[in-house]
User: Which sequence fits this backbone?
């Protein structure tokens, strides 16, 4: 193709397009308050403003009608009653909550948000809200020299998105993910801005194809969409953590995942037969490498028909699943949205007869080609269809399955546009809407149907769902893996900022295919990647058909031992990880974090791509290059103890750290705590002993954290069957004081006590638990 050669940049090729003309919202004519919403009539359109809390404000522009305030697929809360002080001057209106001020100039209508000290949050200048005759809506906002941008969901490239532009349109991209490859599978039209150590966020709740441009000009950025309303939320922060709490307050947080889903997952496209799967499981057990999940990719199905098993390849799925469960391994099958057009296939028959499939306005079913051949697609925008699809999962739960993997749900279709015809008319719960508008939420709604259906069928057990596509709010139903990466070192490197930005976008439970999906991996890459994977929220090794097998034992004993050791570490860290997942479910804070989240005043962290944190006190600095055994590690303020050597490093400095192929540099902040468990067996992965490792500082350090545990697989915690300890640790020269400030819940874990283990205890230091010299906390 000519487009793939240098002809693409032929000098005469670019046609000058006419200047784009935007119509500005114009001058304010009048306004009124209705309940807690303000409606503004402007010369060229209408604007509504709603305060959700005293730190969250929503702005909606509709160029033709009164702004519509209902129908969001992402937002799950109503505005709170916020008390507003209003002043109406000659040129300016002001609306103040206790924490922020919104200023509106009347001619032209421009809107700016400030904190109480007069710091700018989101502001407009020469240009504001506008639109084009073709339906495009756009917002121009002031950009400052020191603004840094994060989030945007699943994006390639570096952590800081300043100087970049992005598009939101869920896309199946198999071609290598380059730093410029955009868009990918998820659309999360949300970002956080960091300016002078203070943060704020913007969520553009528009499901059309949308764009964010922090690149074209240096003094303003824009966000725009092909259609719909300019409907966006401003989160005033001011800390990065507060922004994320505010964003996830309105779009929801992850449900507490079943513990087994936090273990190690092994996958391949595909383990093709029952024998192959049994052999695989047996290998793990014999080699004593812990594994919680084996994924079944598309070959398990009969001709790629969802809700079926191929009876030749998998003659007895029920027995297979039961036997694996005995070994401590769960099976997660893939489920795609495409239903094969086959008049003898019961799902297709039901779908047609009960009108569950996407249709054109004229009434014809939309057909597209995917794995099973010509297929129809459930219309997940309709409650009836979501229920139907959810119920179908009884097929899987009856076999003992507790987790589902949704793929191809952008939806991906094998055609020129790579997706469904944008003219398809979705039912959208009684408000028919085209695919052009709802494309970006197809995966989210499939996730909702699947999660809710599984939850219903599992009778009190927590379902696990993995998805490829999604929209803002996807965290409520599914964990997200980052799609078809390749076995390149560059993709290992790129996965860190990608997963960190997903975390900053509310999606705490994510990870890439460890080892790389396409292309052939190698011993060193897989080993280094497994070291990283052991500490990313989602930990799955997955590889593609036609490429080298990449189970941990494929590259000889030396590498197997190293990988086994890191997979075991994943389990040793489970008490820590699980507590962080609990925090994510309560506050929306990510498990894996960029350093800037904890150190927003430290500019050295703003685009630090090759290090990450777990929680607020541990820094990981993996080796991400071949043949390299030394790397620079930046440590922010504090004193840091390397996990395996116990060596202490000074903060606010860059250190050269040595790490042989079996070493992953991990730094724990002095004065803080990590919770560790003893990993027992492949079958029983609940710890019998839990220890609190206190990194004793002599500097009078004070640290608070929450330890959480429960049965790990049911919803009994909702009724109080959990244990939560809010702990404070104060260490100085003479003592390490551990105070359990509060103990909540009535769950009795098997381990009954927590052993205190002080790392780097100095001679004169006593350990004092709740005022008494002691070595354990009794539960
Ligand atoms: O067009 O099911 O991203 O993880 O193994 C390929 C086969 C379809 C794409 C997924 C990948 C999965 C593969 N799927």
Assistant:
């Amino acid at each position: 193709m000519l487009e793939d050669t240098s002809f693409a940049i032929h000098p005469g090729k670019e046609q000058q397009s006419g200047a784009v003309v935007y119509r500005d919202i114009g001058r304010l004519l009048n306004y009124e308050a209705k309940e807690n919403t303000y409606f503004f009539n402007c010369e060229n359109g209408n604007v509504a403003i709603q305060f959700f809390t005293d730190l969250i404000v929503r702005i909606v522009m509709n160029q033709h009608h009164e702004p519509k305030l209902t129908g969001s697929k992402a937002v799950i809360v109503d505005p709170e009653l916020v008390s507003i002080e209003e002043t109406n001057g000659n040129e300016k209106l002001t609306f103040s909550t206790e924490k922020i001020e919104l200023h509106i100039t009347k001619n032209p209508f421009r809107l700016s948000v400030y904190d109480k000290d007069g710091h700018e949050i989101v502001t407009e200048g020469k240009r504001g809200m506008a639109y084009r005759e073709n339906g495009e809506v756009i917002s121009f906002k002031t950009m400052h020299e020191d603004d840094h941008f994060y989030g945007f969901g699943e994006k390639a490239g570096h952590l800081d998105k300043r100087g970049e532009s992005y598009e939101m349109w869920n896309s199946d991209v198999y071609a290598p993910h380059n730093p410029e490859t955009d868009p990918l599978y998820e659309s999360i039209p949300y970002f956080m801005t960091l300016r002078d150590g203070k943060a704020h966020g913007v969520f553009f709740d528009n499901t059309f194809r949308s764009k964010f441009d922090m690149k074209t000009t240096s003094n303003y950025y824009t966000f725009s969409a092909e259609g719909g309303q300019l409907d966006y939320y401003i989160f005033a922060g001011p800390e990065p953590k507060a922004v994320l709490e505010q964003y996830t307050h309105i779009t929801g947080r992850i449900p507490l995942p079943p513990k087994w889903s936090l273990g190690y997952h092994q996958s391949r496209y595909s383990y093709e037969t029952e024998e192959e799967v049994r052999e695989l499981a047996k290998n793990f057990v014999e080699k004593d490498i812990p594994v919680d999940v084996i994924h079944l990719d598309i070959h398990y199905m009969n001709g790629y028909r969802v809700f079926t098993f191929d009876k030749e390849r998998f003659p007895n799925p029920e027995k297979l699943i039961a036997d694996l469960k005995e070994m401590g391994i769960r099976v997660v099958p893939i489920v795609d949205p495409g239903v094969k057009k086959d008049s003898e296939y019961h799902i297709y028959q039901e779908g047609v007869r009960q009108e569950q499939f996407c249709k054109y306005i004229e009434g014809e079913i939309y057909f597209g080609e995917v794995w099973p051949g010509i297929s129809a697609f459930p219309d997940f925008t309709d409650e009836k269809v979501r229920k139907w699809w959810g119920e179908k999962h009884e097929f899987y739960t009856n076999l003992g399955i507790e987790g589902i993997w949704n793929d191809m749900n952008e939806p991906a279709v094998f055609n020129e546009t790579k997706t469904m015809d944008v003219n398809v008319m979705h039912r959208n719960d009684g408000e028919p809407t085209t695919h052009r508008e709802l494309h970006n939420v197809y995966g989210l709604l499939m996730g909702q149907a699947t999660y809710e259906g599984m939850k219903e069928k599992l009778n009190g057990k927590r379902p696990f769902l993995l998805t490829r596509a999604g929209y803002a709010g996807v965290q409520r139903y599914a964990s997200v893996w980052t799609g078809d990466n390749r076995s390149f070192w560059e993709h290992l490197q790129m996965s860190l900022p990608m997963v960190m930005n997903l975390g900053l976008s509310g999606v705490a439970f994510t990870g890439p295919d460890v080892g790389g999906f396409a292309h052939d991996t190698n011993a060193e890459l897989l080993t280094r990647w497994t070291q990283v994977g052991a500490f990313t929220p989602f930990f799955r090794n997955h590889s593609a058909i036609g490429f080298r097998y990449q189970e941990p034992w494929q590259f000889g004993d030396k590498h197997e031992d190293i990988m086994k050791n890191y997979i075991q570490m994943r389990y040793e860290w489970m008490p820590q990880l699980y507590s962080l997942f609990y925090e994510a479910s309560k506050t929306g804070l990510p498990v894996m974090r960029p350093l800037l989240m904890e150190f927003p005043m430290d500019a050295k962290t703003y685009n630090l791509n090759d290090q990450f944190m777990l929680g607020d006190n541990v820094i990981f600095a993996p080796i991400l290059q071949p043949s390299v055994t030394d790397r620079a590690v930046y440590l922010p303020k504090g004193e840091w103890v390397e996990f395996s050597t116990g060596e202490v490093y000074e903060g606010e400095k860059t250190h050269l750290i040595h790490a042989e192929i079996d070493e992953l540099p991990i730094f724990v902040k002095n004065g803080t705590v990590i919770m560790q468990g003893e990993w027992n067996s492949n079958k029983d992965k609940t710890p019998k002993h839990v220890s609190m490792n206190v990194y004793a500082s002599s500097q009078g350090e004070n640290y608070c954290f929450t330890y959480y545990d429960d049965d790990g697989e049911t919803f009994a915690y909702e009724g109080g069957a959990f244990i939560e300890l809010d702990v404070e640790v104060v260490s100085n020269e003479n003592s390490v004081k551990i105070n359990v400030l509060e103990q909540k819940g009535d769950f009795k874990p098997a381990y009954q006590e927590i052993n205190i283990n002080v790392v780097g205890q100095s001679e004169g230091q006593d350990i004092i638990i709740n005022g008494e010299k002691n070595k354990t906390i009794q539960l």
User: Anything to note?
Assistant: The domain at 20-250 is CATH 2.60.40.1760 (Immunoglobulin-like). Residues 269, 297-298, 334, 407-408, 468, 483-484, 517, 542 surround MIG (CB under 6 Å).
